Amino acid sequence: MTVRSAKKLAYLCARPAGGRWLHVHWPEWMLHDASRARYRARARWLLALLDLARAQGVRLAWTAHNLLGHDDPHPDLGEGARRALLSRCDVVFGHFDGAEADLRRWGLRGRFVVTPHPHLADDHPEPFAGDDARRRFRESLGVPDGGALLVSAGAIERYKNLGAVARALRAAPDADLRWVVAGRARPAALASLREAVGDDRRVTVRPWHHDEPSLSSLVAAADATLVAYRAFYTSGAAVLSLTLGAPVVGHPLHQLAGWVGQPFFVPLDRVDGPSLSKAIASVRGLDPSVRDAARAFARRSDWARAAASIDGALFGGEA
User: Fold this and answer.
1) What is the separation, in whole angstroms, between the first and last Cα of the chain?
2) Of 152, 168, 203, 277, which is least packed with CB atoms within 10 Å of its CB?
3) Residue 262, φ and ψ in degrees, nearest 5
């Protein structure tokens, strides 16, 4: 049973009706509020509901996509809520091996199970019928013939370090580079990014949430997806990138640490002009076959396998 409303969650926690597990994915959407007082009250309410369910024998699991909540107006309160959630979990699912160490430091006492993030081909199928269609789409974005297109897709948030990338690009001499940043944005984060971009015509900021076909086209047209944040994360943008055959440029940390040595991953040592130019040169030098390798790697993890892994942890012999 999927629960998306606070009212339904409260009912099920009060009357579990024989339910054995409560599996949480994105708890922040029930917490976020511009008011710190209301945010704290919502966190207390959610934790009290979880405790009520646990007191009736329900066990708690969480798929920890990130330790930082998207669009969190009060990250310090969000951190406190996550630490409290982790301390209550019997099982936590993470998308990469290295997640466990961070989760333990944050308060996890229960079991940790690796469940790699599935590919996104079902929602984002290949959008181009051939190379000509992809080339025409790149031209519509202003990418010159032989130029490089980098894309950063997803919510535009300060912790993603996009402003630092924009400032570093201004010191990079790649005249035929285009960087497109696309995703929903809170006003403060958007203003900060636009200030960093300044008058750099190589950068396009699209502050809205793309529908699936347009997002697929943008990522599939790119030479690489750029992710530059260092906080604990699973990057859905990176998973989407590989699904559509685009290599990934990013810091070799967290989820991406396991991709070091793969042909579709270009490590980014630091965010400055020389490092970005070096990464861009590496992307330009990749063989076209790398795009097929990226797709094949992404498709190793599908939704059926993820579901089987979760079911085994929750309802198998170890549970």
Assistant:
1) 19
2) 277
3) -75, 145
